TrEMBL record:
<dbReference type="InterPro" id="IPR009061">
    <property type="entry name" value="DNA-bd_dom_put_sf"/>
</dbReference>
<protein>
    <submittedName>
        <fullName>MerR family transcriptional regulator</fullName>
    </submittedName>
</protein>
<dbReference type="Pfam" id="PF13411">
    <property type="entry name" value="MerR_1"/>
</dbReference>
<dbReference type="InterPro" id="IPR000551">
    <property type="entry name" value="MerR-type_HTH_dom"/>
</dbReference>
<dbReference type="InterPro" id="IPR047057">
    <property type="entry name" value="MerR_fam"/>
</dbReference>
<keyword id="KW-0238">DNA-binding</keyword>
<feature type="domain" description="HTH merR-type">
    <location>
        <begin position="1"/>
        <end position="63"/>
    </location>
</feature>
Length: 134
């Protein structure tokens, strides 16, 4: 299953060790992964990619297997969703900055102008300050 999912076998064994996945075994103790096991590991991978900790994932699976109400389970997902949204906002701001830098350097390259972005920033802001004072 590790190869099919593009993860290392060691990672899969670690997930088993900490109780994130518990595959069935045959009479020779060979692991038998179900489609549900694979779907769960894919979910774990997606949550890990977005920054959810293994501790939170473990708590989530414990709640999922319990008869407790779903309040805490939902709270874990809601909190993580907000964290992901916050991270997207940070990435979006960084992407906008990169776009500005790329646009400036492309303009500078085409026009043979100064590539000093800081100088351009200072010059542009001085021009704004002068027009604001008028």
């Amino acid at each position: 299953m590790a190869t099919n999912l593009g993860i290392k076998e060691h990672t899969l064994r670690y997930y088993e060790q900490i109780g994130l996945i518990v595959p069935k075994r045959d009479e020779n103790n060979v692991r038998l992964y179900s489609k549900e096991d694979q779907d769960w590991v894919e979910f774990v991978m997606h949550m890990k990619e977005t920054g959810m900790t293994l501790e939170k994932l473990k708590r989530y699976i414990d709640l999922w297997h319990s008869d407790d109400d779903m309040e805490e389970l939902l709270a874990i997902l809601d909190e993580h969703k907000q964290n992901v949204k916050n991270q997207i906002s940070v990435y979006q701001a960084n992407l906008e900055l990169l776009d500005k830098k790329i646009t400036f350097y492309e303009y500078s390259k085409q026009n043979g102008t100064d590539k000093n972005l800081f100088k351009k920033f200072v010059d542009d802001n001085q021009g704004k300050n002068k027009s604001e004072k008028i």
